[in-house]
Specification:
Layout (H helix, E strand, L loop, with lengths): L5 E5 L7 H17 L3 E3 L1 H6 L4 H14 L2 E5 L7 H12 L4 E4 L7 H4 L4 E4 L2 H21 L2
Length: about 140
């Protein structure tokens, strides 16, 4: 049994630079670790070995095992994979925190009461850590 909650870092990987895809995830990992959480970074699977199908399956399994999802959705790029991950997390009742700086949240996010929208990285990181800990706690108490 896990003692620390697991947070999945959803965000653009394709159609942006490696630095843009990596930088916010590294910063988030550092802060979330200090807040008592573990992190799954799907970018590591993309950079790893294996077919695209294996990478997608690995990421889907990690998403399903997560206690919360942090979705970076403010970069001006297409977020097809991120939207799919948000939809899957919502369908599995996994809390989602969408980080959106300076943009109006799209309708697909606003229609989900389960998606919390934050307008700063600081707020998003603290909110997702809190949500993950709240979701993990009942599972720990049941044992």
């Amino acid at each position: 049994m896990r003692k620390r909650p697991l947070i999945y870092l959803a965000g653009a990987i394709d159609n942006i630079s490696k630095v843009d895809a990596q930088q916010w995830r590294e910063e988030a990992t550092e802060v979330l670790s200090k807040l008592g959480c573990d992190v799954y970074n799907p970018l590591m699977g993309v950079m790893g070995v294996g077919s695209p199908e294996e990478t997608i399956q690995q990421n889907q399994e990690a998403l399903r095992a997560s206690d919360a999802v942090l979705a970076e959705l403010w970069k001006p790029t297409l977020h097809y994979g991120t939207v799919t991950e948000v939809e899957e997390a919502v369908s599995l009742n996994i809390p989602v925190v969408a980080w959106m700086e300076g943009v109006c949240p799209p309708l697909y996010l606003r229609r989900h009461a389960a998606v919390i929208i934050e307008n700063t990285k600081f707020n998003a990181l603290h909110t997702v850590a809190r949500a993950a800990k709240e979701r993990l706690k009942p599972m720990q108490d049941a044992i």
